[in-house]
Amino acid sequence: MLVGVVGKANVGKSTFFKALTLANVEIQNYPFATIKPNHGIGYVRIECADKFFNVQCNPREGYCIEHNRFVPVDLIDVAGLVPGAYEGKGMGNQFLDDLRQADALIHVVDASGSTNENGEPVEPGSYNPCNDIKFLEVELDMWYLRLIKKGWDKFARSVQQEKDHDIKIVKDLTSHLSGLKVTEEMVEEVLNNLKLDRNNILSWTE
Ligand SMILES: Nc1nc2c(ncn2[C@@H]2O[C@H](COP(=O)(O)OP(=O)(O)OP(=O)(O)O)[C@@H](O)[C@H]2O)c(=O)[nH]1
Ligand SMILES: [Mg+2]
């Protein structure tokens, strides 16, 4: 499993990442201290089934100490985002491509409100951190949009020419978006929610 640590610049992403992985990473009180992504492994502690059998197991992944199983989770800490990153502000958002295969993202927020929208230190409580939650979703959506649009016209035309394309569309879209870990269930749900015409893919708007 791969978990990405995301959020505005200078909010404590690398600090959180370091606490989880014990990796020695750059932590600074200014925006864009992290540029190259940091990879590491954190462990989730669960009670091991070997307790029930009163034996000591030797797991292939992670490790087990006195019936405590430490399950490894891959983590990646990336550069910070600022509003308008998808238009190239700050470090932009191209670096998010490293997170395409992530199963989940953790959004780190500076709840003390002591960093402004560009991640610069300000008086605690003078910035409303709710703004960060909203803008980060926009930045992530714009990132997905860019990836989905890549090669879309060619894809849509070739699907439209297939026999029974209204039935095959779910499978076709899933394989087209497999680089984003999209599943058939997700595609089905979105097609239904947006009431997209499966007979005419070329009519779909952005
Ligand atoms: N008070 C307080 N300070 C924190 C906390 N977490 C991180 N910091 C401080 O916030 C500053 C930024 O921390 P980083 O971990 O480098 O933040 P980042 O989000 O990785 O920053 P960029 O990589 O530049 O985007 C550092 O001075 C940290 O010591 C926290 O929970 N409380
Ligand atoms: Mg960092």
What's the CATH C level of the largest domain? Alpha Beta
Average pLDDT, all residues: 94
Say what the CATH topology of the largest domain is. Answer: Rossmann fold
What CATH architecture of the largest domain would you give?
3-Layer(aba) Sandwich
Low-confidence stretches: none
**Superfamily (CATH H level) name of the largest domain:** P-loop containing nucleotide triphosphate hydrolases
Helix-residue proportion: 25-40%
β-strand amount? 15-25%
What is the number of independent domains? 2
Query: Any ligands, ions or cofactors bound here, and which?
Result: guanosine-5'-triphosphate, magnesium ion
Major sheet, described briefly? 5 strands, mixed
Structural class by helix and strand composition: alpha/beta
Principal-axes geometry comes out as flat
Let me know the number of strands.
5
The SSE order reads EHEHEEEHHHH
Tally of separate helices: 6
Gyration radius from CA atoms, angstroms: 21 Å
Distance between the termini: 31 Å
Describe the protein.
- By secondary structure, the protein is of the alpha/beta class.
- It has two domains: 2-147, P-loop containing nucleotide triphosphate hydrolases (Rossmann fold, 3-Layer(aba) Sandwich); 151-203, no CATH class.
- Helices cover 32% and strands 16% of the residues.
- The chain contains six helices and five strands; from the N terminus they run E-H-E-H-E-E-E-H-H-H-H.
- It has helices at residues 13-21, 50-53, 130-149, 152-160, 165-176, 184-194, and strands at 2-6, 38-47, 63-65, 68-77, 104-107.
- Strands 1, 2, 3, 4 and 5 form a five-stranded mixed β-sheet that branches.
- The radius of gyration is 21 Å and the shape is flat.
- The mean pLDDT is 94.
- Residues 9-15, 27-29, 31-34, 79-80 line the site of guanosine-5'-triphosphate.
- Magnesium ion binds at residues 13-14, 33-34.
